């Protein structure tokens, strides 16, 4: 059967190994002095338990008595927890993880469905070169609260703001021309000029001319590549840190940060290679996008790593809320913030998704704000992660020591312990069913015939017994043996024999799990006084 391997010396079953489990050797004698509980006296000058050396500076004794910690109260187990502990260990683990699909359902409904089910324009900024009171009044009457005009004196400045993304479109009444940047926001470039044209024709003005300032390439017809690339970066960054937080609790800060940095570089290389040269959704800018993605993945990883100290195995919930469920609708990749309901319109200013999409579009198409906004947001998330790591590590260690001292456990820890014991028992039973057993050092040995008790390994009608012989008795009678040079009909005499040819008869089996034992009826067998085994010479 399986036994713990941690405190067993290695390679103690090599000499004189007979295939069976090894017996525990006698414990070694103590080479150190016993504790004071046994009655021995501590050496001179050694501190006594429960005391602390004096700090008065007199250099001598003066041990001050230390107040002992109070005995912790026993952990109170609720009735539900006692009932839950009676379930199968694997069922307990499954039940304790069902919060994740429930969380996904709620998150998708409250974030994606709520944000995208009915996008509607509100306060969309339009750059108006000069002044046109008639147009402004007509727009407010036809579409109240949807569009907000900003007066510009320079057409060039209005165009720059359209390319930077601060203005949806620009309209010049003197030339009756609308300027748009489809590469920055496809939905805005498609809807706003149509609304302006409808209102202008309604007040007796001809339909304006639409001029494109930044068209989209053929490999990104609807401008969604930046959004999905951003989503890949976010998921890769938070998942690396999530697994570190779940399974790497005792790791040092430098180890965690090394895994985040190296993992971020690998994810950046893979995503940009797949999106660029492999799929063809992005042409060029490979090195720049690798560096941008690396920085964002590291910043997200640091933030999630800092949060993992406080929420433990539930780190997936805050990580997905911050970097998936809230970041994607508020990023402006699918719809601009002027089309999104609150709070997603306001979150566009703080989520990582908006800064990441802006940096990607600025690098690929030359639109959107400059890198300064994205770098500031990246530094803020990385700094917040470092602060959370510093204080979270101390808080996590205090909680860990408190749990060890008080002996408190969680339902998940109890389920893991029960499942580990169940799997060990199941493993031993499976080995024994196949005629194997586990030794102290973890090696496998074959059970001796006397230890074989499993009837299910006896064989079947196709394979026979486990030793290759048939499991049922052979209904054979006398088989005459003809020697060379003798009459076939005559009897063959054998010295010391019975005078007839040898015959084969079945021998009753003592154990049903063993193969049939065969023997001869000659006088030689009677003289030997012993039965043949299943490997005897025939």
Describe what you observe in this structure.
The chain has a 5-stranded mixed sheet with strand order 4-3-5-6-7, with helices on both faces. It has a two-stranded antiparallel sheet with strand order 1-2. The chain has a two-stranded antiparallel sheet with strand order 8-9. Strand 5 and strand 6 (177-180) form a beta hairpin. The chain has helices at residues 79-84, 89-96, 99-116, 133-142, 155-164, 186-202, 225-247, 253-278, 286-311, 316-325, 327-330, 344-347, 352-364, 371-406, 411-433, 523-528; strands at 51-52, 64-65, 124-129, 147-152, 169-172, 177-180, 209-212, 436-438, 444-446, 504-506, 518-520. The protein has 16 helices and 11 strands. It has 538 residues and is an alpha/beta fold. The chain is elongated and about 95 Å long. Helix 2 (89-96) packs antiparallel against helix 15 (411-433) and helix 8 (253-278) packs antiparallel against helix 9 (286-311). 45% of the residues lie in helices and 7% in strands.
